[in-house]
Amino acid sequence: MSALLVLAVTVPLLGLAPLFLLRPGAGARIAVAVLGLGCAITGAIAVQVVRTGQALHYFVGGFPPPLGVALRADGFSAAMLCMSAMVLLLTGLFAIAGGGGKAPRMPAAFFTLLLALSSALNLAFLAQDLFTLYVALELLTFAAVPLVCLEGKAGQLSAALTYLLFALFGSVLYLLGVVLVYGLFGTLDLALLARRLAQAPPSGTFIAALALMSAGLMAKAALFPLHLWLPPAHSGAPPAASAVLSAVVIKAPLFLLVRLWSDLAPLPLAQAGAPVLAAFGALAILFCGVVALAQDRLKLLIAYSTAAQIGYLCLMFPLAAAADGQWSALAWTGGTLHLVSHAFSKAAMFLAAGLIAEAMGHDRLSGLAGAGRVAPVSVAAFGIGGLSLMGLPPSGGFIAKVMLLTSAIHQDAWWIALVILAGGLLAGAYVLRVVVIALQRPEPAGAGRVPPARECGARAGIALALAFAAVLLGFLPLAPFAFLSIGRPLSWTGLLP
C-alpha cells in the first residue's frame, strides 16, 4: 500500500489553518507552498507508478473492499493528478504575483477554495467506489461555485446560482444511478462491480443506472446540451478562478465518465453507448465553436471554446471501444492527451485574457486593437495557448487530434474525422480573430477612452509558462503511451507496447 495516495488528499487541507490564523499575505504564500508540496507528492506517485509498472493502492483503515474504501492510482490517474497539481500551483503563483510583496492579488477566500479544490480533485482521481466519487464531486462543486462569485457582483451571483442548480441536478441523477447499482450488486467498488458484470450480461436496470450517472456527469462537465451554465460562470469569474474552473474542475466529471465507460461497463455495452456520447461531443464541437466565433467579449469567447473542446474527449469513446486494439489504444492516448493539453492551454488563455482586460480596461474584442503593444507577453501567451486548441504543430493539441484523426480514419469513422477537422477550423477562426485584432494599430486617443495600463510581467510570464507547457506536449512521440496503460483493465493487456 502507498501512503502517498492519502497524503495527496490530506496535505492540501493542512494549508487551511495558516489562512485562518495569519495575515492574508503570509497565509496565501503558505497556501501556495502547500500546493507546491502537493505537486511534489503527485510527481512521486507518477514516478512510483512508472518504476513499479503497477497501480498503487491504499485501503483506508486497512480494510479492503467491500468493507473498506480503496484509493488507487494507475497511469491515467497519475497523469491527471500531475496535470491538476501543476495548474493549481501556477494559478496560485499568478494570484500572489504582482502584489508588491505586501498583499496577494486575490482574497484569502480564493486560496482557501484553491486548497479545497486540490483535495477534492485528488480524491476524485483516486477513489475507487461510486459513493466516495460522489462525495468528491460534491466537495468539488461546493469549492468551485464560490469561485464564480468571489467578487460579489450581481452577474457573478446569478451565474453561480445557475452553476449550482445544474451541479445539483447532476448530483441527483448520479446518486440515483449509484442507488440502483447498490441495489443490484450490494457493492459500489469499481473493481468488484467490473468483475461481477463480466460474469453475466448487464441488466436493464444497470443500463438505466449507467445512463443516469452519465447524464449527471455530463451536467457537471457542461457537455452539450447541458453546457448553458458554463459560459456565464467561467467568463464572469476573476481570471485566476476562471483558469482553474475551465482547466481542471470540469476535468473531474469527464475523468469519471471515462472510468464508467472504460473500466465499469462491459465492452459490448460500451460499444453500444459510445456513439451516443460521441454524437453529443460532435454537437458540442460544432455548435459551441460557432457560438464562440460570434462573441464580442474575450472571456466569453474562451468560455464557449471550453464547452466546444470537451467534445473531443467524447469522440474518443467509440474509437477506444472498438475491437481494433492498435487504433483503439491510439484513440485512448489521444483523448487523454487532449484533456491534459487543453488544461494547460485554457488556463494560459484565461489568465492572459484577464491581463489583457486589465491593461486595456475592458475585454471587448471591438476595442482590443493595440493590445499587442500594451500587453505583448499576454497576447503571446493567448496565441501560443491557442495553437493547441487549433491543433497546429508543435502543440499537445496537435498530437492529440492527429491521434484521434488517425484512429478515426483507420476505423472508417469518417464522420468523426470530419468533425475533428471542422472543429480545428472553427478554433482557428476564433483564436486568429483575437490575435489579428490585438496586433492592429491602436485607436487614437479620444475623449472617454480609458488609457492602457502597464502589463504585469510576472503574471504574464506565468500565463506564458502554461502556454509553453501545452506546446511542450507536442514533442511527445506520436504513438500510444505505455504509461497510460499501467493498471488499466485486463482488456487493455497486449494493446500497448
How does this structure look, described?
The protein is an all-alpha fold. It is 73% helix and 2% strand. The protein is built from 22 helices and 2 strands. Strands 1-2 form a two-stranded antiparallel ribbon. It is globular and about 75 Å long. The two termini are 26 Å apart. The C terminus is likely disordered.
| Arithmetic mean pLDDT | 90
Helical percentage: over 70%
Strand order of the largest sheet: 1-2
What is the terminal-to-terminal distance? 26 Å
Counting DSSP H or I runs of 4 or more residues, the number of helices is 22
The low-confidence parts are 490-497
- Which band does the percent of strand residues land in? under 5%
* Topology, number of strands: 2
Quickly give the structural class. Answer: mainly alpha
| Mass-distribution shape | globular
Give a quick account of the main beta sheet: strands, pairing sense, barrel closure: 2 strands, antiparallel
Characteristic key phrases:
2% strand; single chain; 73% helix; ND/Mrp_TM; globular; transmembrane helix; mainly alpha; two-stranded antiparallel ribbon; NADH_UbQ_OxRdtase; 497 residues; 2 strands
